[in-house]
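A note from the maintainers: we've had questions about how concatenated examples are separated. There is no special marker in the raw files; a new sequence line simply starts the next protein. For clarity in this README we add a label.
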Amino acid sequence: MSQEMLDQLRSMDPAMLTTVLRQEQGNPAFELLDWSVEPLGHEKIIRTTGGLYHFSGHGQDGDGIRPWSVVLKIVNHPSGEMCQAPREWCYWKRELLAFDSGLLAGLPGPVRAPRCYGVTEQEDGGWLWMEHIVESTGRRWSPADFGRAAYHLGRSAAAYLNERALPDAPWLGEPFFRSTFADGGWWARHMATDTPESVWQHPLVQQAFAPDLRRRILAIWADKYGFFDALDRLPQVLCHNDCHRRNLMWRKADEGQEELIVLDWAFCGLGGVGMDMGELVATSAYFFEYELSAIEEVERLVFQNYLAGLRAAGWMGDERLVRLGYTASAALWMGATLPGWTAIMLDPASGVNVTAMYGRPAEDVLAGWVALTEFLLDRADEARLLMGAMEIA
């Protein structure tokens, strides 16, 4: 996080902030009185993540003085060829466009994105002004909290399986795994065994991932087009594609009802029903947002509740389709990549503060990832059986 950027924000033109606050307050007469800005903690894994900053202070209008609070997200425009194409999985501008287009203001409830108060393009990226969400639950979720989130996600997804038209925009990501794992792309080069960038030569990977695990992981890469085809043939919904605990927050709306706020829409695009459950279970486990000893309980509650949400919203399709979306997504995004994450994140030379990011020392993270890999490889096998039984691949 750049001190230079923080200093720049602290000296910004108050007129710019006033424009944002008038959007936040819904009042063109609101006047800024005082303000401060502080950085918010976040994980920076890809280059498009610039920073998060919390602005707060006081303002006034005809009704008197009151406090305000907003968040600024800075998105980087990275140099080089990666993340430049609108359909690419990591397209740098996607979240800015998703908010600016109004798509995220009209998500089917009870899921919603933070309210947007303005998007501005900068020379080296973009600024996204958003609602400051105050979470109504504790930081650590119970398995039941994951189940409740899945219910809301299922209800929201069902809208696209019933009456709502799928969104259509040139910046929406193409099928997520086709783009992420494309031949010649970063992940394909690094997960191959015969390239200079191969993660399989890394000492930590060789130490932790036994030959049988390596064989089963590489089998997913060998079968990847079968997985892609199966996901493309599922009923399609709007997918977040990074729907893990750290991008989800519970809050109480002004009317008192519970809302699930979903953050970070940089990967959004169309995908198969059930896919977002893969990240909810597997990527949350990757971050140790629950203990891995609870993974089967979390999985059971997530799947049951997602399906219940679909049913409550009127979708009565074959639940095996939903299970396939979940198992294939979980297997691809984490089951096929944890050796890569090991080489990226746990190498002592990476500069990553492993304990701060994962809440435990590197050796415990690695042991957990190996156990998670074994679990997800079993889900890959389940996905293959579903594809065969349903003749969907």
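[label: protein 2]
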Amino acid sequence: MSESGTSAAGMAVRAELDRPVDGHTGDWLAPELVVGALRALDAAVLLASGLLLGLFREGGPAAHPLWAWSLLMGLLLALPLWQLVGVYAEPRRLDMTGQAGRLVLGWLAALLVILALAELTGTRAALPPGWLAGWALAGGFGLAAVRLAAAGLVARWRRQGRLGRNTVVVGAGELGRRFVEEVRRRDRSVRLIGLFDDRRERVPEFVGGFPVIGTLDDLLLFARRHRIDEVVVALPWSAEGRLLDCLKKLRALPCDVRLCSDLIGFHLPHRGLGHVAGLPVLHVFERPMSAGAQLAKAIEDRVLAGLALLLTAPLWLAIALAVKLSSPGPVLYRQQRGGFNGELFEVLKFRTMRVEACDAGSEPGLGHTRKGDPRVTPIGRFLRRTSLDELPQLWNVLKGDMSLVGPRPHARAHDDRYAALIDGYLARHRVKPGITGLAQISGCRGEIRTLAEMQRRVELDLAYIQRWSLRLDLEILLRTLLHGLRDPRAY
């Protein structure tokens, strides 16, 4: 191919990478969260309607001692019954019409059981007059209203593309073509947004009506600009080396990775079998956090960071004044670092070095801060030793660039260097970076003198991603407060 032809092809790939994905949006909304919200709303509707009817009946709750017991029994019976009859089944489909019918049956069954128990025990007379019938009607209307509102919202979210699952296929050969055609034949709801293949010049521009956007490296760039929920690797069973190289790169993406070919010996991690449009695929890598977990962590971050910011506000003023008086230059130090999915963001710290010694973080051969480093100011040594220089990163957390807990963000030059030396290093970017993390409370702080020391940090970061829970986050935060402020290895 001529140089001009190669340049034109490269421009075409870049244009395709920058092209917005139809119906794409990268927010927190997911079918599982919608179903969870429906569960909570259903319970709230029944509780509120039963309470209001009971409180305003003649004599109030005091005159009807079994009223509260019946209300509780109704909730305890209704919710499990709805689960059994499939009200909340198949969250990705969000079939509001089908749910409505099963919901009515489940609600009527729960009320009949309560009525039967009251008759058998002779306690029906102790209930408020007409309360059970009123609760049946009020609860039924309330549930119907929730479903009508939810149906409207779901329809609008579907039009906006907020409930779909963006799927990318790696491999545009015969296996990829057959996979795409089968998916389109079996399930039109699966959103295929493109194909990628390293043999770009040997495959067609379109496969099954979908564009072959670029190579595997282009996919890594594409994933930073568009939300990808699932990558399906459709490569021949015999291409063992090619598959392994491909999966090593895909490990860095914060999405599910599926393999629709044979398991290659014992080389690959796997978590069982799954399906895409009814086609069997092998689970290789799972996204580190479900949509619900991401929402819970986001709430944790915003609430705790906001409280910490309020409590430490006077300390910020004192530190800012000390930095300003100790050496000329700005109070804050800003540097671009790699964040979630490798996206760059501007990290904030109190400046601890002389202005002329501050680096951009992208210089080749960039070193680490050493003990007794002459670039560090006297106040800077204190701030580093106590980790108070990290306080401005609370603002990064509130902006959504960082979390309170996660792998520490490294300078761009360090990311480039260690990504080439340590297998799985880039998998640290599958979650947001943190102010503190499992590595920091496990003694991995201070100067990095050997590759083994960085390897240990990466291992602890990946262990945190695999073990994540709110409890683990709170434990790390507590241990950071108790021990992190007096770590002699931080300088």
